[in-house]
Structures
1.
Amino acid sequence: MRVLVYVAFVGLLLDTATTLEETSLREELKQAAIKWEGDIPCQKSDCSCAFRSMGCCCGNQELQSLREHVSESFLNVSDRINQLQHEIRQVIEPVNVAFTAFLGDVNCIGPFDRNMSIPYDVISLNDGFGYNSGLGLFTAPVTGVYYFSVSVYSRMQWAGQHLFHKVQMMKNGEVQVSTWEDNRDDPEDSSHLALLLAMRQGDQVYAELLQERSLCGNIKGLNSFSGFLVYPTPDATKAY
């Protein structure tokens, strides 16, 4: 009986020593891993190992994801800063856009077989270079609110001539306002159009004479087209 007890006791001591020895060995390995300064071959499958977890290869995927997130955030902030700078420049920097043009030495405009833009060919002012005399139209150089005016004059060329005209102000091909004359009694007629328009950069405005109608007896300065930028506004079509 005493022999069996002795054997059991010795076995317990050996097990305890083995457990303590393994624990001590693991602790030594862990400390050695922490202190290791050399290169460690990349084996992603064992990144949980104390040695491997210290290697750059095991942290590469996480670092790459973090770098992509930081890069994307930086680009978003940069785009927003650029947009804010553009808006600030529109507010604090002077934006000079204004034009005035007249019909020159021409007795009659029209009639035409289709609606035609009126080619005001004498330009006295064109700040911002938005007005094109060859086409008779204004193209907005910046987004904003603009004021436009058109003066219309026509005179009979002989007694009893039919005064018959219609002029309309157009924005991107759509009628905004118009004026017309259709009589035989008044030897001359004049009118004026004016309006404010919200314009995006690239929008176009022009005065149009309707088909089969004419403006005659032009005197320089009586048929004119003018406009100017009242104030710029941020372009809502641009993504932030």
2.
Amino acid sequence: MLGRKTKKQKILDEALEHKDFERKRIEEILKSLGKYTPALHPLIEVYLDACEVYHIKYLEWKDTGFKSTKQHTNKNGARNEIKHPLAQQVEVWSEKKSKLLNQLGLDMKGKELEFVGPLGSKLEKKKKEVKTDEPETNNRLVQFRNKRGGNS
């Protein structure tokens, strides 16, 4: 029996597609950096689960029109504006994803990441060409040795 998919089922399907895409992307980045190892699989799985939950909450929040607040009625019947629960969840899961990316070494603190991608190889080649033409005067050890007067 084939029927129409509910909005919730469409969101879940899209989140699973995104999770598969993210798995391939993360593994490709780690391999290109030479950091990929099977020991990272549990951490990658936790990251992918966080991505899935984030994506679901994000799409649900998107369906509400990205409302930042929601009307809430307390026990006494007073109505107050509160931060939208889905907005809070998106924020929480976004932070969790960031922390897990940090643990995988894939945040912007990793200087190697600036060269990941199709344009990165061109930038890396240019940087290597510049480095080969210049002596290593910016190296602290070389500077220290030069001050001491020895090259050993």
3.
Amino acid sequence: MDEHYDAIILGTGLTECVLSALLSVDGKKVLHMDRNPYYGGSGASLNLTQLYEKFRPGKEPPTDIGRDRDYAVDLIPKFMMANGELTKMLVHTDVTRYLEFKQIASSYVFRDGRIAKVPSTEMEAVRSSLMGLFEKRRAKQFFEFIQNWKDDDPATHQGFDLDTTPMTKIYDYFKLEGGTRDFIGHAMALYLDESYMQRPARETYDRIILYTSSMARYGKSPYIYPLYGMGELPQGFARLSAIYGGTYMLDKQIDEIVLDEETGKFVGVRSGDETVKADMLIGDPSYFRENVGGQGANKKEKVRETGKVVRAICILKHPIPNTDNTDSVQLIIPQNQVGRKHDIYIAEVSGAHNVCARDVYIAQVSTIVETSTPELELRPGLDLLGPIYDKFVSISSLEEPVEQGEADNIFITRSLDATSHVETIVEDVRDVWRRATNGKELVLKQRSADEGAQIQQ
């Protein structure tokens, strides 16, 4: 191959495919390669045969839960905020024409030993078991403060500066109880741990506004989800990249990432006896554990492990108990409720989303590993599911780049985390874009609110 590209991208995860599409739309010549024969990388959606082959090699899938083609099971399910950044990217790039979405029916939080619905209307908030009467009044005052805040009107600030005041001080001011703080910080602002409490409140303010505006868009819950699984999203962005000249190669072995011996900069990617050259390389961390050029002192670690995620994909023949028999649920167990450092996430979808057979439900439980017995850490979540027809457990590394990438023109993405939403993916897209374009911010054009995804009500 004598062809030269502006960028080579390794891996067809959602982050990589979004970047591929954005670069292609920006006029760059992009080659996209993946060792797998399917799109999605670690976040692919698999049919029943693929699922059993991955977790139980050699074992035939059962015949009593529908046909192979009924299934598109996410290895890492993620829900989208209706008003979130990824939704804006889909609208901006017109990828919505390749996809259909359905709303996630409801959002729940685990509190005081039971499942409680996150209120979606004022009436539900009044009836909610999450708070007592006096706490509801305090919470109402807090949310009024958030909704009424105007940066240019000090009368709405109540003496606070969101850019300097830590979130914990605002909680204290409104005298909110610990359980209410859990609910706001973890079920609405979607934080993984408690570290946000000491950071400026602006970040939490933005997240609460995103949640409430997403909730207001369609009611019931703030989340939407693509029919046929999350694996549809990378494919949609890949199609867009191809329209703008991007080239895709699936099932392509990556044997070496070639560096210039003198400068240490990226030169190209070798597959077998072919080497294709490009100005820069973007890829998911799994491609950089080895196969990167350089010898002796020049050989550098490209990625580091920051933790591990344990996930259990569970096939159920019923909806999750105590969730009003809904066809889809986001359920968060805040870490304080079960004596942990990290939240436990449960994402449930069903045949209504074209990801499994009728009357079958797919629930995934995930969290950050904290002990030497990871599967036991999922127990608080698994115990809420009722009888489990079958279960597939995996433990994967959370990895991030060691360096920014400017020195060698290799820009590495981050692993998909334990959360059941995609906002952290968008943060990674923006970060890699910034690093790969000499500090330029990713700017998406504003479109009218009516444009975009058609959500089935």
